[in-house]
Amino acid sequence: MEKTYIDALPLTMNSSEKQETVCIFGTGDFGRSLGLKMLQCGYFVVFGSRNPQMTNLLPNGAEVLSYSEAAKKSDIIIIAIHREHYDFLTELTEVLNGKILVDISNNLKINQYPESNAEYLAQLVPGAHVVKAFNTISAWALQSGALDASRQAILKKEIPFSTSTAWLYDSYVALGILGFFLFVLLGITSLPSVSNAVNWREFRFVQSKLGYLTLILCTAHTLVYGGKKFLNPSNLKWYLPAAYVLGLIIPCIVLVIKFVLIMPCVDNTLTRIRQGWERNSKH
């Protein structure tokens, strides 16, 4: 199979210094991502694989060899394979003697094995120096770099306490609770079993006086909810009013008409008309 390589853009390169070689056992996602970053940092990377001729998608500039050949080229060997495949390391005991083995593996479950993967690796290759590293970072984070979502943080700004905003919020809640309570009361008094138990004066007071009070509270509740949004056109999507703005049209018209009707000059005239007064009456 023809090998495919991924270009590596160097992060820091110094041609005057000799490149240090790092060996990586395993050509999976994490091994390839780590190798790419190593190359960008100026290291020479050699991969160890059980099938060197069948390996592809390696970073451009990396070399792939068998496990034993790759181990001979570096004193630092990164084990990027699963624990289940550690058995072949016992055959490389002599080659790995005195070398640094970097264990980057994580188990799928907590307490899956009696000992950690690093301890198990040290038992298989007692002559090597086993260390733990890179097990808290993912292959995606290595590939994405600064674009990785785990590196993005929202800047938290201190928002000063606003007394006006607090009063608006408290008023919005209080008006909503009172309006809903009176609305339920109106609904209860509209039941035949309840309306038949009260006289006409009491029924008229509840349906008229409390009815308008309920309408005022609910309208004020919606007005406070809108707040400054009524005067800010940018809050209007497609420059169309929101649903709560449309819902205020009829209640506001009713309240304006009621306010006009309760003015003394209008109310006195209407009261006289209700009592039978006529403008052109001779009697």
TrEMBL record:
Name the Pfam families on file: F420_oxidored
Q: Does the keyword Hydrolase apply?
A: no
Domain named Pyrroline-5-carboxylate reductase catalytic N-terminal is located at 21-107
Q: Which residues form the signal peptide?
A: none
Q: Does the keyword Transmembrane helix feature in the UniProt annotation?
A: yes
Among the GO molecular function terms of this UniProt record, one is: ferric-chelate reductase (NADPH) activity
Q: Which InterPro entries match?
A: NAD(P)-bd_dom_sf, P5C_Rdtase_cat_N, STEAP_metalloreductase
Q: Name one GO cellular component term.
A: plasma membrane
Q: What protein name applies here?
A: STEAP4 metalloreductase
Q: Which organism is it from?
A: Aotus nancymaae
Gene behind this chain?
A: STEAP4
